[in-house]
Amino acid sequence: MKRAEVGNIIEFRGLQGIVEKVNENSVIVDLTYMNNYRDLELEQRTVVNHKNYKIIK
Predict the structure, then answer these.
(1) What radius of gyration, in Å, describes the C-alpha atoms of the chain?
(2) What is the pTM of this model?
(3) Which helix (H) or strand (E) element contains residue 46?
(4) Order of all β-strands in the sheet with 45-49
(5) Which of 7, 25, 27, 57 is the most buried (most CB within 10 A)?
(6) Which residue intervals of 1-57 are DSSP H helices?
(7) Cα(45)–Cα(24) distance, integer angstroms
């Protein structure tokens, strides 16, 4: 599986976000990329394991 890089857009658990930082086992993702971010009442950033996402762009 190819690992995401900073700036990639990824999808996980039905959500999408922009990768801000790549760690050894995970990435930090900015969720404000989604149009409905405010409606979902989510934190601005989250951590996603490399096994749990798909690269969109």
Answers:
(1) 10
(2) 0.90
(3) strand 45-49
(4) 45-49, 26-30, 15-22, 9-12, 54-55
(5) 27
(6) 37-40
(7) 18
